[in-house]
Amino acid sequence: MANSSSISISNIQLQHITHISDYFFSQGQENTLQKYTNPLDKNPFYRTVPGFYLTPADIVLRNNIIDLSGTFQSPTPSLAYHRAGPRKQILFNPSTVKAAIVTCGGLCPGLNTVIRELVVGLWEMYGVREIFGIKAGYRGFYSYDPVLLNRKMVDDWHKRGGTVLETSRGGFDLNKIVNAIQDHGFNQVYIIGGDGTMRGAVKIFEEVKQRKLYISVVGIPKTVDNDVGIIDRSFGFQTAVEMAQQAINAAHVEAESAVNGIGLVKLMGRSTGHIALHATLSNRDVDCCLIPEIDFYLEGKGGLLEFLESRLKETGHAVLVVAEGAGQDMIPRTESQKTEKDESGNPVFLDVGGWLKSELKNWWNRDHPNELFTIKHIDPTYMIRAVPANATDNSYCTLLAHSAIHGVMAGYTGFVCGPINGNYAYIPVDEIAKAKNKVDTKDHKWSWVRSVSNQPDFIRS
Ligand SMILES: Nc1ncnc2c1ncn2[C@@H]1O[C@H](COP(=O)(O)OP(=O)(O)O)[C@@H](O)[C@H]1O
Ligand SMILES: O=P(O)(O)OC[C@H]1O[C@](O)(COP(=O)(O)O)[C@@H](O)[C@@H]1O
Ligand SMILES: [Mg+2]
Protein backbone atom coordinates (compact mmCIF):
# COMPACT_ATOMS: atom_id res chain seq x y z
CA MET A 1 0.00 0.00 0.00
CA ALA A 2 1.24 3.51 -0.76
CA ASN A 3 2.49 5.59 2.16
CA SER A 4 -0.46 7.91 2.74
CA SER A 5 -0.06 9.49 6.13
CA SER A 6 -0.15 12.95 4.53
CA ILE A 7 -1.69 14.23 1.29
CA SER A 8 0.64 15.82 -1.20
CA ILE A 9 -0.86 18.62 -3.28
CA SER A 10 2.19 18.95 -5.49
CA ASN A 11 0.60 16.97 -8.37
CA ILE A 12 -2.61 18.98 -8.53
CA GLN A 13 -3.19 20.48 -11.95
CA LEU A 14 -5.22 23.66 -11.60
CA GLN A 15 -7.25 24.41 -14.73
CA HIS A 16 -6.53 28.00 -15.71
CA ILE A 17 -9.41 30.32 -16.46
CA THR A 18 -8.76 33.44 -18.46
CA HIS A 19 -8.97 36.89 -16.92
CA ILE A 20 -9.61 39.85 -19.23
CA SER A 21 -6.26 41.33 -18.15
CA ASP A 22 -4.52 38.18 -19.52
CA TYR A 23 -5.06 39.29 -23.12
CA PHE A 24 -6.13 42.91 -22.96
CA PHE A 25 -2.59 44.30 -22.99
CA SER A 26 0.16 43.64 -25.47
CA GLN A 27 3.32 41.99 -24.20
CA GLY A 28 5.35 44.37 -22.02
CA GLN A 29 2.41 46.76 -21.61
CA GLU A 30 1.54 47.62 -18.02
CA ASN A 31 -1.78 46.35 -16.61
CA THR A 32 -3.62 49.58 -15.93
CA LEU A 33 -7.08 48.13 -15.43
CA GLN A 34 -8.79 49.67 -12.44
CA LYS A 35 -10.27 47.43 -9.76
CA TYR A 36 -13.26 48.13 -7.55
CA THR A 37 -14.24 46.93 -4.10
CA ASN A 38 -17.06 44.41 -4.28
CA PRO A 39 -20.33 46.24 -3.48
CA LEU A 40 -21.40 43.24 -1.37
CA ASP A 41 -19.18 44.86 1.29
CA LYS A 42 -21.92 47.45 1.77
CA ASN A 43 -24.90 45.19 1.14
CA PRO A 44 -27.00 44.87 4.31
CA PHE A 45 -27.96 41.27 3.48
CA TYR A 46 -24.43 39.93 3.35
CA ARG A 47 -21.92 39.65 6.14
CA THR A 48 -18.54 39.67 4.51
CA VAL A 49 -16.87 37.78 7.33
CA PRO A 50 -13.36 36.34 6.81
CA GLY A 51 -13.59 33.57 4.21
CA PHE A 52 -16.65 35.14 2.53
CA TYR A 53 -14.62 36.27 -0.44
CA LEU A 54 -12.83 33.62 -2.44
CA THR A 55 -9.36 33.93 -3.90
CA PRO A 56 -7.57 32.05 -6.70
CA ALA A 57 -6.23 29.77 -3.97
CA ASP A 58 -9.70 28.31 -3.39
CA ILE A 59 -10.03 25.21 -5.50
CA VAL A 60 -12.34 22.28 -6.10
CA LEU A 61 -10.94 18.83 -6.88
CA ARG A 62 -12.46 16.98 -9.82
CA ASN A 63 -11.85 13.58 -8.38
CA ASN A 64 -12.62 13.09 -4.72
CA ILE A 65 -12.40 9.34 -4.79
CA ILE A 66 -8.91 8.15 -4.06
CA ASP A 67 -7.64 4.60 -4.14
CA LEU A 68 -4.91 4.54 -1.53
CA SER A 69 -3.83 1.05 -2.60
CA GLY A 70 -2.82 2.46 -5.97
CA THR A 71 -4.50 -0.49 -7.72
CA PHE A 72 -7.11 1.48 -9.64
CA GLN A 73 -5.78 4.87 -10.65
CA SER A 74 -8.36 7.41 -11.72
CA PRO A 75 -7.67 8.80 -15.22
CA THR A 76 -7.68 12.38 -13.91
CA PRO A 77 -6.50 12.16 -10.32
CA SER A 78 -5.26 15.68 -9.87
CA LEU A 79 -7.40 18.07 -11.91
CA ALA A 80 -8.64 21.08 -9.94
CA TYR A 81 -10.79 24.11 -10.75
CA HIS A 82 -11.18 27.54 -9.20
CA ARG A 83 -14.06 27.73 -6.76
CA ALA A 84 -16.99 29.87 -7.78
CA GLY A 85 -18.03 32.76 -5.57
CA PRO A 86 -17.59 36.48 -4.88
CA ARG A 87 -14.17 38.12 -5.12
CA LYS A 88 -13.13 41.04 -2.88
CA GLN A 89 -11.87 43.06 -5.83
CA ILE A 90 -13.91 43.25 -9.01
CA LEU A 91 -12.95 44.42 -12.47
CA PHE A 92 -16.24 45.81 -13.70
CA ASN A 93 -17.61 49.09 -12.47
CA PRO A 94 -21.29 48.15 -12.03
CA SER A 95 -22.44 51.48 -13.46
CA THR A 96 -20.72 50.76 -16.79
CA VAL A 97 -21.85 47.15 -17.15
CA LYS A 98 -24.05 46.36 -20.12
CA ALA A 99 -25.02 42.69 -19.87
CA ALA A 100 -26.59 40.42 -22.48
CA ILE A 101 -28.34 37.13 -21.73
CA VAL A 102 -29.15 34.54 -24.40
CA THR A 103 -30.72 31.06 -24.37
CA CYS A 104 -29.88 28.60 -27.18
CA GLY A 105 -30.80 25.04 -28.19
CA GLY A 106 -33.68 22.92 -26.87
CA LEU A 107 -35.81 23.74 -23.89
CA CYS A 108 -34.98 22.61 -20.40
CA PRO A 109 -36.78 23.19 -17.09
CA GLY A 110 -35.15 26.08 -15.24
CA LEU A 111 -34.12 28.28 -18.17
CA ASN A 112 -36.36 31.07 -16.94
CA THR A 113 -35.03 30.69 -13.40
CA VAL A 114 -31.46 31.18 -14.61
CA ILE A 115 -32.49 34.28 -16.59
CA ARG A 116 -34.41 35.63 -13.60
CA GLU A 117 -31.53 35.07 -11.22
CA LEU A 118 -29.02 36.63 -13.59
CA VAL A 119 -31.17 39.75 -13.69
CA VAL A 120 -31.92 39.77 -9.95
CA GLY A 121 -28.32 38.95 -9.00
CA LEU A 122 -26.79 41.61 -11.23
CA TRP A 123 -29.40 44.11 -10.11
CA GLU A 124 -29.36 43.49 -6.37
CA MET A 125 -25.88 42.21 -5.59
CA TYR A 126 -23.95 44.49 -7.93
CA GLY A 127 -26.32 47.35 -8.72
CA VAL A 128 -26.21 46.75 -12.49
CA ARG A 129 -29.08 48.42 -14.36
CA GLU A 130 -28.36 47.75 -18.03
CA ILE A 131 -29.34 44.12 -18.53
CA PHE A 132 -30.62 42.95 -21.91
CA GLY A 133 -32.26 39.77 -23.16
CA ILE A 134 -31.28 38.51 -26.62
CA LYS A 135 -34.25 36.98 -28.41
CA ALA A 136 -34.29 33.54 -30.06
CA GLY A 137 -30.79 32.18 -29.50
CA TYR A 138 -27.53 33.05 -31.27
CA ARG A 139 -29.27 34.46 -34.34
CA GLY A 140 -30.96 36.99 -32.06
CA PHE A 141 -27.72 38.94 -31.59
CA TYR A 142 -27.85 40.14 -35.18
CA SER A 143 -31.54 39.67 -36.07
CA TYR A 144 -33.53 41.31 -33.30
CA ASP A 145 -33.33 44.30 -31.00
CA PRO A 146 -32.20 43.40 -27.48
CA VAL A 147 -34.91 43.62 -24.83
CA LEU A 148 -34.17 45.71 -21.73
CA LEU A 149 -34.89 43.67 -18.59
CA ASN A 150 -35.39 44.80 -15.03
CA ARG A 151 -35.82 43.33 -11.57
CA LYS A 152 -39.60 43.74 -11.46
CA MET A 153 -40.25 42.35 -14.89
CA VAL A 154 -38.61 38.97 -14.18
CA ASP A 155 -40.17 38.51 -10.76
CA ASP A 156 -42.26 35.40 -11.50
CA TRP A 157 -40.31 33.98 -14.42
CA HIS A 158 -39.06 31.04 -12.36
CA LYS A 159 -42.63 29.76 -12.26
CA ARG A 160 -42.84 29.45 -16.02
CA GLY A 161 -41.63 26.66 -18.28
CA GLY A 162 -39.65 27.37 -21.47
CA THR A 163 -37.66 30.54 -22.00
CA VAL A 164 -39.28 33.95 -22.07
CA LEU A 165 -36.35 35.11 -24.21
CA GLU A 166 -37.16 32.37 -26.77
CA THR A 167 -34.58 30.02 -28.25
CA SER A 168 -33.58 28.46 -31.56
CA ARG A 169 -31.19 26.04 -33.19
CA GLY A 170 -28.72 27.02 -35.92
CA GLY A 171 -28.05 30.64 -36.88
CA PHE A 172 -24.51 30.71 -35.54
CA ASP A 173 -22.56 33.34 -37.48
CA LEU A 174 -19.45 34.22 -35.52
CA ASN A 175 -18.62 37.54 -37.12
CA LYS A 176 -22.18 38.80 -37.10
CA ILE A 177 -22.56 37.81 -33.44
CA VAL A 178 -19.33 39.42 -32.20
CA ASN A 179 -19.94 42.52 -34.34
CA ALA A 180 -23.42 42.82 -32.80
CA ILE A 181 -21.99 42.40 -29.28
CA GLN A 182 -19.56 45.25 -30.02
CA ASP A 183 -22.16 47.44 -31.73
CA HIS A 184 -24.54 47.15 -28.79
CA GLY A 185 -21.72 47.85 -26.36
CA PHE A 186 -22.27 44.68 -24.33
CA ASN A 187 -19.37 43.97 -21.99
CA GLN A 188 -20.81 40.91 -20.24
CA VAL A 189 -22.34 38.06 -22.26
CA TYR A 190 -24.20 35.27 -20.44
CA ILE A 191 -24.78 32.28 -22.73
CA ILE A 192 -27.17 29.58 -21.53
CA GLY A 193 -27.13 26.40 -23.60
CA GLY A 194 -26.01 22.82 -24.13
CA ASP A 195 -23.03 21.17 -25.80
CA GLY A 196 -23.65 22.85 -29.18
CA THR A 197 -24.08 26.24 -27.55
CA MET A 198 -20.85 25.79 -25.60
CA ARG A 199 -18.95 24.99 -28.80
CA GLY A 200 -20.28 28.30 -30.13
CA ALA A 201 -19.35 30.09 -26.89
CA VAL A 202 -15.73 28.89 -27.28
CA LYS A 203 -15.61 30.53 -30.71
CA ILE A 204 -17.15 33.78 -29.44
CA PHE A 205 -14.68 33.88 -26.54
CA GLU A 206 -11.72 33.23 -28.88
CA GLU A 207 -12.88 35.97 -31.25
CA VAL A 208 -13.38 38.45 -28.41
CA LYS A 209 -9.86 37.63 -27.21
CA GLN A 210 -8.46 37.97 -30.71
CA ARG A 211 -10.06 41.42 -31.00
CA LYS A 212 -8.79 42.28 -27.47
CA LEU A 213 -12.22 43.35 -26.33
CA TYR A 214 -13.07 44.29 -22.75
CA ILE A 215 -15.88 41.74 -22.71
CA SER A 216 -16.46 38.77 -20.46
CA VAL A 217 -18.11 35.69 -21.99
CA VAL A 218 -19.58 33.06 -19.66
CA GLY A 219 -21.47 29.86 -20.35
CA ILE A 220 -24.16 28.33 -18.17
CA PRO A 221 -24.54 24.67 -19.14
CA LYS A 222 -28.10 23.61 -19.95
CA THR A 223 -29.39 20.31 -21.23
CA VAL A 224 -32.32 18.18 -20.24
CA ASP A 225 -30.34 15.15 -21.50
CA ASN A 226 -27.60 15.62 -18.85
CA ASP A 227 -25.01 15.02 -21.56
CA VAL A 228 -22.59 17.77 -20.49
CA GLY A 229 -19.47 16.37 -18.85
CA ILE A 230 -17.40 17.36 -15.78
CA ILE A 231 -20.31 18.90 -13.84
CA ASP A 232 -22.38 16.74 -11.47
CA ARG A 233 -25.57 17.15 -13.48
CA SER A 234 -27.27 19.77 -15.60
CA PHE A 235 -30.19 21.84 -14.34
CA GLY A 236 -33.68 20.70 -15.29
CA PHE A 237 -32.61 17.08 -15.50
CA GLN A 238 -34.17 16.10 -12.17
CA THR A 239 -37.41 17.82 -13.10
CA ALA A 240 -37.51 15.89 -16.39
CA VAL A 241 -36.90 12.58 -14.59
CA GLU A 242 -39.75 13.41 -12.23
CA MET A 243 -42.09 14.26 -15.11
CA ALA A 244 -41.22 10.98 -16.82
CA GLN A 245 -42.68 9.07 -13.85
CA GLN A 246 -46.21 9.95 -14.94
CA ALA A 247 -45.67 8.34 -18.33
CA ILE A 248 -44.12 5.21 -16.84
CA ASN A 249 -46.90 4.88 -14.26
CA ALA A 250 -49.51 5.17 -17.00
CA ALA A 251 -47.70 2.56 -19.08
CA HIS A 252 -47.66 0.24 -16.08
CA VAL A 253 -51.38 0.65 -15.44
CA GLU A 254 -52.19 0.01 -19.12
CA ALA A 255 -49.94 -3.04 -19.23
CA GLU A 256 -51.24 -4.52 -15.98
CA SER A 257 -54.83 -4.08 -17.07
CA ALA A 258 -54.47 -6.10 -20.27
CA VAL A 259 -53.86 -9.76 -21.06
CA ASN A 260 -50.24 -9.95 -22.18
CA GLY A 261 -49.94 -6.19 -21.92
CA ILE A 262 -46.85 -4.20 -22.77
CA GLY A 263 -46.42 -0.55 -21.82
CA LEU A 264 -43.74 1.16 -23.89
CA VAL A 265 -42.44 4.62 -22.96
CA LYS A 266 -40.08 6.61 -25.14
CA LEU A 267 -38.11 9.29 -23.32
CA MET A 268 -35.80 12.06 -24.50
CA GLY A 269 -32.08 11.49 -24.61
CA ARG A 270 -30.44 12.18 -27.94
CA SER A 271 -27.21 10.30 -27.50
CA THR A 272 -27.31 9.56 -23.79
CA GLY A 273 -29.71 7.49 -21.73
CA HIS A 274 -29.54 9.39 -18.43
CA ILE A 275 -33.23 10.34 -18.34
CA ALA A 276 -34.33 6.77 -19.17
CA LEU A 277 -31.90 5.28 -16.65
CA HIS A 278 -32.83 7.57 -13.75
CA ALA A 279 -36.54 7.37 -14.51
CA THR A 280 -36.23 3.58 -14.46
CA LEU A 281 -34.26 3.47 -11.24
CA SER A 282 -36.67 5.69 -9.39
CA ASN A 283 -39.80 3.97 -10.68
CA ARG A 284 -39.20 0.23 -10.12
CA ASP A 285 -42.06 -0.91 -12.38
CA VAL A 286 -39.82 -1.00 -15.42
CA ASP A 287 -38.85 -4.42 -16.79
CA CYS A 288 -36.39 -3.24 -19.39
CA CYS A 289 -34.58 0.03 -20.06
CA LEU A 290 -32.99 0.55 -23.47
CA ILE A 291 -30.40 3.30 -23.89
CA PRO A 292 -28.09 4.45 -26.71
CA GLU A 293 -25.00 3.34 -24.80
CA ILE A 294 -26.05 -0.35 -25.03
CA ASP A 295 -26.71 -2.08 -28.34
CA PHE A 296 -29.68 -4.37 -27.99
CA TYR A 297 -31.15 -6.97 -30.31
CA LEU A 298 -34.57 -8.53 -30.71
CA GLU A 299 -34.31 -12.15 -31.88
CA GLY A 300 -32.44 -15.11 -30.44
CA LYS A 301 -30.93 -16.13 -27.16
CA GLY A 302 -30.50 -13.22 -24.75
CA GLY A 303 -32.56 -10.95 -27.03
CA LEU A 304 -35.42 -8.61 -26.11
CA LEU A 305 -38.16 -10.90 -27.45
CA GLU A 306 -37.00 -13.89 -25.42
CA PHE A 307 -36.93 -11.68 -22.32
CA LEU A 308 -40.42 -10.27 -22.93
CA GLU A 309 -41.77 -13.75 -23.57
CA SER A 310 -40.59 -14.87 -20.14
CA ARG A 311 -41.87 -11.68 -18.42
CA LEU A 312 -45.31 -12.06 -19.96
CA LYS A 313 -45.40 -15.70 -18.92
CA GLU A 314 -44.35 -14.84 -15.35
CA THR A 315 -46.32 -11.68 -14.62
CA GLY A 316 -48.67 -11.19 -17.55
CA HIS A 317 -47.33 -7.75 -18.38
CA ALA A 318 -44.12 -5.79 -19.00
CA VAL A 319 -43.00 -2.15 -19.01
CA LEU A 320 -40.32 -0.99 -21.42
CA VAL A 321 -38.53 2.36 -21.30
CA VAL A 322 -36.55 3.37 -24.35
CA ALA A 323 -34.38 6.45 -24.81
CA GLU A 324 -35.01 8.13 -28.16
CA GLY A 325 -31.43 7.57 -29.30
CA ALA A 326 -31.44 3.82 -28.61
CA GLY A 327 -31.57 1.23 -31.37
CA GLN A 328 -31.17 3.78 -34.17
CA ASP A 329 -28.93 1.44 -36.17
CA MET A 330 -31.67 -1.18 -36.30
CA ILE A 331 -34.42 1.01 -37.72
CA PRO A 332 -34.64 0.83 -41.52
CA ARG A 333 -34.11 4.24 -43.10
CA THR A 334 -33.92 5.85 -46.50
CA GLU A 335 -30.69 7.35 -47.86
CA SER A 336 -31.80 10.89 -47.03
CA GLN A 337 -32.81 9.86 -43.51
CA LYS A 338 -29.29 8.52 -42.97
CA THR A 339 -27.75 11.95 -43.22
CA GLU A 340 -30.57 14.16 -41.98
CA LYS A 341 -29.47 16.87 -39.53
CA ASP A 342 -31.31 19.61 -37.66
CA GLU A 343 -30.40 23.29 -38.02
CA SER A 344 -27.60 22.94 -35.47
CA GLY A 345 -26.11 19.88 -37.14
CA ASN A 346 -27.51 17.34 -34.68
CA PRO A 347 -28.59 13.99 -36.20
CA VAL A 348 -32.35 13.61 -36.63
CA PHE A 349 -33.53 10.34 -35.13
CA LEU A 350 -36.22 8.01 -36.32
CA ASP A 351 -38.99 7.08 -33.91
CA VAL A 352 -37.65 4.10 -31.96
CA GLY A 353 -40.92 3.85 -30.00
CA GLY A 354 -43.12 3.47 -33.07
CA TRP A 355 -40.68 1.04 -34.65
CA LEU A 356 -40.44 -1.10 -31.51
CA LYS A 357 -44.21 -1.18 -31.15
CA SER A 358 -44.64 -2.53 -34.66
CA GLU A 359 -41.77 -5.05 -34.26
CA LEU A 360 -43.33 -6.36 -31.04
CA LYS A 361 -46.78 -6.66 -32.61
CA ASN A 362 -45.35 -8.58 -35.57
CA TRP A 363 -43.48 -10.91 -33.24
CA TRP A 364 -46.57 -11.69 -31.19
CA ASN A 365 -48.78 -12.29 -34.22
CA ARG A 366 -46.12 -14.56 -35.65
CA ASP A 367 -45.42 -16.63 -32.50
CA HIS A 368 -48.76 -16.45 -30.66
CA PRO A 369 -51.40 -15.83 -33.33
CA ASN A 370 -54.31 -16.93 -31.18
CA GLU A 371 -53.44 -15.19 -27.92
CA LEU A 372 -54.48 -11.79 -26.75
CA PHE A 373 -51.80 -9.09 -26.79
CA THR A 374 -51.86 -5.33 -26.15
CA ILE A 375 -49.10 -2.80 -26.54
CA LYS A 376 -49.53 0.84 -25.53
CA HIS A 377 -46.88 3.27 -26.66
CA ILE A 378 -46.59 6.47 -24.60
CA ASP A 379 -44.35 9.22 -25.90
CA PRO A 380 -44.41 12.21 -23.52
CA THR A 381 -41.73 13.97 -25.65
CA TYR A 382 -41.79 17.69 -24.84
CA MET A 383 -43.98 17.24 -21.75
CA ILE A 384 -40.96 16.32 -19.64
CA ARG A 385 -38.99 19.45 -20.53
CA ALA A 386 -41.62 22.13 -21.21
CA VAL A 387 -42.41 22.58 -17.52
CA PRO A 388 -41.13 24.89 -14.78
CA ALA A 389 -38.20 23.59 -12.75
CA ASN A 390 -38.92 21.74 -9.52
CA ALA A 391 -37.72 23.13 -6.18
CA THR A 392 -34.30 21.46 -6.29
CA ASP A 393 -33.62 22.59 -9.84
CA ASN A 394 -34.80 26.12 -9.01
CA SER A 395 -32.27 26.44 -6.18
CA TYR A 396 -29.59 24.95 -8.40
CA CYS A 397 -30.36 27.48 -11.17
CA THR A 398 -30.05 30.33 -8.67
CA LEU A 399 -26.63 29.20 -7.49
CA LEU A 400 -25.47 28.77 -11.08
CA ALA A 401 -26.59 32.25 -12.07
CA HIS A 402 -25.02 33.89 -9.03
CA SER A 403 -21.78 31.93 -9.49
CA ALA A 404 -21.59 33.13 -13.09
CA ILE A 405 -22.15 36.74 -12.07
CA HIS A 406 -19.42 36.70 -9.38
CA GLY A 407 -16.86 35.29 -11.82
CA VAL A 408 -17.76 37.74 -14.56
CA MET A 409 -17.77 40.77 -12.25
CA ALA A 410 -14.27 39.74 -11.11
CA GLY A 411 -13.12 39.89 -14.74
CA TYR A 412 -12.93 36.19 -15.58
CA THR A 413 -14.00 35.13 -19.04
CA GLY A 414 -14.23 32.03 -21.25
CA PHE A 415 -15.53 29.85 -18.45
CA VAL A 416 -18.66 28.06 -17.35
CA CYS A 417 -19.82 27.40 -13.85
CA GLY A 418 -21.17 24.19 -12.44
CA PRO A 419 -21.10 21.87 -9.45
CA ILE A 420 -18.23 19.41 -9.15
CA ASN A 421 -18.77 16.97 -6.32
CA GLY A 422 -21.31 19.40 -4.88
CA ASN A 423 -19.02 22.46 -4.94
CA TYR A 424 -19.50 25.20 -7.51
CA ALA A 425 -16.49 25.77 -9.73
CA TYR A 426 -15.29 27.71 -12.78
CA ILE A 427 -14.38 25.44 -15.68
CA PRO A 428 -12.74 26.59 -18.95
CA VAL A 429 -15.47 26.68 -21.61
CA ASP A 430 -13.39 24.77 -24.17
CA GLU A 431 -13.00 21.92 -21.68
CA ILE A 432 -16.77 21.74 -21.14
CA ALA A 433 -17.45 21.94 -24.88
CA LYS A 434 -15.37 18.79 -25.39
CA ALA A 435 -16.57 16.82 -22.38
CA LYS A 436 -19.36 14.33 -23.08
CA ASN A 437 -21.32 12.70 -20.32
CA LYS A 438 -22.44 9.26 -21.40
CA VAL A 439 -24.00 6.62 -19.18
CA ASP A 440 -21.17 4.50 -17.83
CA THR A 441 -22.48 1.00 -18.40
CA LYS A 442 -19.63 -0.48 -16.40
CA ASP A 443 -20.43 1.27 -13.14
CA HIS A 444 -22.72 0.30 -10.29
CA LYS A 445 -25.68 2.31 -11.46
CA TRP A 446 -26.10 0.25 -14.60
CA SER A 447 -25.75 -3.00 -12.60
CA TRP A 448 -28.44 -1.57 -10.34
CA VAL A 449 -30.76 -1.07 -13.32
CA ARG A 450 -30.20 -4.66 -14.39
CA SER A 451 -30.76 -5.99 -10.91
CA VAL A 452 -34.02 -4.02 -10.57
CA SER A 453 -35.35 -4.96 -13.99
CA ASN A 454 -33.71 -8.38 -14.54
CA GLN A 455 -33.20 -7.36 -18.14
CA PRO A 456 -30.62 -9.08 -20.34
CA ASP A 457 -27.18 -7.52 -20.84
CA PHE A 458 -27.51 -7.98 -24.62
CA ILE A 459 -24.07 -9.51 -24.92
CA ARG A 460 -24.36 -12.24 -27.56
CA SER A 461 -22.88 -15.49 -26.31
N1 LIG B 1 -19.72 23.57 -33.41
C1 LIG B 1 -20.46 24.65 -33.26
N2 LIG B 1 -19.92 25.89 -33.47
C2 LIG B 1 -20.66 26.99 -33.30
N3 LIG B 1 -21.96 27.00 -32.95
C3 LIG B 1 -22.54 25.82 -32.74
C4 LIG B 1 -21.85 24.60 -32.88
N4 LIG B 1 -22.71 23.58 -32.60
C5 LIG B 1 -23.89 24.16 -32.32
N5 LIG B 1 -23.80 25.51 -32.40
C6 LIG B 1 -24.87 26.47 -32.17
O1 LIG B 1 -25.31 26.41 -30.82
C7 LIG B 1 -26.72 26.59 -30.74
C8 LIG B 1 -27.36 25.49 -29.97
O2 LIG B 1 -26.91 24.22 -30.41
P1 LIG B 1 -27.82 22.91 -30.30
O3 LIG B 1 -26.97 21.75 -30.65
O4 LIG B 1 -29.06 23.11 -31.09
O5 LIG B 1 -28.31 22.88 -28.80
P2 LIG B 1 -27.54 22.67 -27.43
O6 LIG B 1 -26.65 23.81 -27.22
O7 LIG B 1 -28.65 22.59 -26.46
O8 LIG B 1 -26.78 21.38 -27.59
C9 LIG B 1 -27.23 26.70 -32.17
O9 LIG B 1 -27.47 28.06 -32.46
C10 LIG B 1 -26.10 26.15 -33.01
O10 LIG B 1 -26.00 26.75 -34.29
O1 LIG C 1 -36.25 20.62 -29.68
P1 LIG C 1 -36.01 19.71 -30.82
O2 LIG C 1 -35.28 20.38 -31.92
O3 LIG C 1 -37.24 18.99 -31.25
O4 LIG C 1 -35.00 18.59 -30.33
C1 LIG C 1 -35.28 17.61 -29.41
C2 LIG C 1 -33.97 17.26 -28.72
O5 LIG C 1 -33.72 18.24 -27.75
C3 LIG C 1 -33.40 17.63 -26.51
O6 LIG C 1 -34.52 17.74 -25.66
C4 LIG C 1 -32.26 18.35 -25.84
O7 LIG C 1 -31.21 18.56 -26.72
P2 LIG C 1 -30.23 19.80 -26.53
O8 LIG C 1 -29.70 19.68 -25.14
O9 LIG C 1 -29.18 19.59 -27.57
O10 LIG C 1 -31.00 21.04 -26.70
C5 LIG C 1 -33.12 16.17 -26.87
O11 LIG C 1 -33.44 15.30 -25.81
C6 LIG C 1 -34.00 15.95 -28.03
O12 LIG C 1 -33.45 14.97 -28.87
MG1 LIG D 1 -27.06 19.29 -27.48
TrEMBL record:
Top-level taxon in the UniProt lineage: Eukaryota
EC number: 2.7.1.11
GO cellular component: a single term: cytoplasm
Regulation of protein activity: Allosterically activated by AMP.
Cofactor(s) needed by this chain: Mg(2+)
Reaction equations catalysed: beta-D-fructose 6-phosphate + ATP = beta-D-fructose 1,6-bisphosphate + ADP + H(+)
UniProt entry keywords in alphabetical sequence: Allosteric enzyme, ATP-binding, Cytoplasm, Glycolysis, Kinase, Magnesium, Metal-binding, Nucleotide-binding, Transferase
Enzyme's top EC category: transferase
Positions bound to substrate: 223-225, 268-270, 324, 382-385
Listed SUPFAM superfamilies: Phosphofructokinase
Keyword Transferase: yes
Chain positions recorded as ATP binding sites: 106, 169-170, 194-197
Role this protein plays: Catalyzes the phosphorylation of D-fructose 6-phosphate to fructose 1,6-bisphosphate by ATP, the first committing step of glycolysis.
HAMAP family: Phosphofructokinase_II_X (MF_01981)
Record-given protein name: ATP-dependent 6-phosphofructokinase
Organism of derivation: Nicotiana attenuata
